[in-house]
Amino acid sequence: MLFRWLADAVLVLHTGFVIFVLIGGLLVLKWPRLLWLHLPAAAWGVFVEWSGWRCPLTPLEQWLRQQGSGPAYQDDFVSHYLLPLLYPAALTPELQFLLGGIVLLVNGVIYAWLWRRERSNSMS
Known about the structure:
Order of helices and strands: HHHHH
Mean pLDDT: 83
Strand content: under 5%
Largest sheet: none
């Protein structure tokens, strides 16, 4: 029972991290000090998507599920939990590249807007 609970906790943490990677720049608009946490997280997210590496949280969750006598999935976190929600097709290298690009685009727009806002405030 404990291992299942821990696996679910890792799943929640992993989901929160993916959401933070994607739209954490919006939090930086409100709390600018989060920039130093969000930039490395976003860079890691893009790196994992573009390199094809697995996030270390995926095997940890799978191991915890196996220890708890639950089923462990064979693919990665994104393709197992997120892609079925967003896309019906399996995760491909092209799709991973697109997902990494979306992270860069969304956060690039947010940070460009933040930079322009800060720049105009400092000129006033």
